[in-house]
Amino acid sequence: MDLVEQRRAAVPVTRAVPAPAAAVPARGAVRPDLEVVFRRDYRLVVGVAARVLGSRDGAEDVAQEVFLSFGRCSVPASEARGWLSVAAAHTALNALRSGRRRADREEAVAAAGETVVDDVAEVVVTREERDRVRTALAHLPRKQATALVLRHSGLSYAEVAAALGLSPGSVGTTVRRAESALREEMVRHESSD
Description:
The protein is built from 8 helices and no strands. The protein has helices at residues 3-10, 34-53, 56-72, 80-111, 125-139, 142-152, 157-164, 168-192. The radius of gyration is 24 Å and the shape is globular.
């Protein structure tokens, strides 16, 4: 045995074993933990979405989309609450933005002389105020809007921090800046009306 062979024999061979990836369900398969997570976090997801949209029906549609996405992802169930909260906020903000585009199209059609039925809820002053807030919220940067929605949906600073990948100490600052930006956006839209 030569020197190289002796060294090989003396040193045990170790091979790097890749860390097991979180299991991604096979196409068409359902995550085994989906029902547990759904039952535990459905109200949270609907609550976050409802705060953004102001509509329980719309919030339930968002929750359906969010849980379908969760069913296809590899997020561990232990981290699902934060992931679902952020996904609900993002999906609701996207729905809000697309709803604004739809409303703009409907107004353009109405201006062109076609008949569009007015939404009775828009007549009520409190609804108009909520609409103004939602419009302003849709114009905020995504991170600020999400932090604001999550915090006002009842999540603690620690939960918001974990969901958004922030330090817990920065959540308060982020939320305060988001509130300030929201007020400025509302004033800007009010003056343009």
